[in-house]
Amino acid sequence: GAVVSQHPSRVICKSGTSVKIECRSLDFQATTMFWYRQFPKQSLMLMATSNEGSKATYEQGVEKDKFLINHASLTLSTLTVTSAHPEDSSFYICSACPPGLAETQYFGPGTRLLVL
Amino acid sequence: DAKTTQPPSMDCAEGRAANLPCNHSTISGNEYVYWYRQIHSQGPQYIIHGLKNNETNEMASLIITEDRKSSTLILPHATLRDTAVYYCIAETQGGSEKLVFGKGTKLTVNP
Q1: Distance (Å) from the alpha carbon of B20 to chain A's nearest alpha carbon
Q2: A47 touching chain B per CB within 8 A
Q3: Closest chain A residue to B103 measured between Cα atoms?
Q4: Strands of chain B, DSSP E
Q5: Which of A15, A69, A107, B4 is such that its CA lies 20 to 30 A from the CA of B24?
Q6: Do B98 and A49 touch (CB under 8 A)?
Q7: Residues of B with Cβ-Cβ distance to A58 under 8 angstroms
Q8: For residue A39, what pLDDT is reported?
């Protein structure tokens, strides 16, 4: 099946710093990728839809200036958490859909962010 | 998107069939029933989806009632590795559509 990777898998940072998370589609091109966030013992919550070559679409309540998304190529989307604070500590997951397999999404393994 | 309702947790003995129910009484005609699962600390994994007919693949079977108001995911021979949270999602077909995850069912397969 299609493979989506994320890097890093785990990151610890100090409060106030910025953290970049990469999402790559390894064997297909994706014009659209999705970013989710998952707090402990909760379900996944969609943060934004990343569109290649255009601005991301953010869900209500998600600050676009804090969570910067860049989808500069058909295989890479990045999420940058700017000026991270402890409440941003979470599990961040991306997903993408291979063209021709429009029925399903493939998820990355997730990135666990801990802000101290 | 149609709202789905699932039991919060279920247990199953290893080697037995696991039957996970999902209610989606407000599903519209163009919405499919998707099932994903999430093993602890991993990203979700696609399992199966269907519209009206029952579906089967190498992972599971999906039984959809005739009125489409509910469905059941069947893992025919559950293993310990099937312990996960299972999400039932009603969505129009298209991987380009965002998925709205509910709370899912935490399935625990016991030895």
Answers
A1: 18
A2: no
A3: A43
A4: 9-13, 18-23, 31-38, 45-50, 55-56, 61-64, 70-75, 84-92, 105-110
A5: A107
A6: yes
A7: none
A8: 95
| Percentage, residues of chain A above pLDDT 70 | 96
Residues B9/B105, Cβ–Cβ less than 8 Å: yes
Decide if B95 and A44 are in contact by the 8 Å CB cutoff: no
How far from B69 is each of A110, B22, B63, CA to CA, in Å?
32, 9, 11
User: Where residue B95 falls among pLDDT bands split at 50, 70, 90?
Assistant: low
Can you give the length of chain B in residues? Answer: 111
Token pair for B81: 């590795």
Place of tokens 């696609």: B46
Q: Which long-range contacts (CB under 8 A, 24 or more apart) does B51-55 make?
A: B51/B93
pLDDT in tens, B31-77: 999 999 999 999 999 999 999 999 999 999 999 999 999 999 999 99
Q: Is B44 within 8 Å of A95 when comparing Cβ atoms?
A: yes
Distance CA B27, CA B37 (A): 21
B52 touches chain A (CB under 8 A): no
CB contact A46 to B (< 8 Å):
yes
**Is B1's pLDDT higher than 70?**
no
Token couple for B88: 């039932």
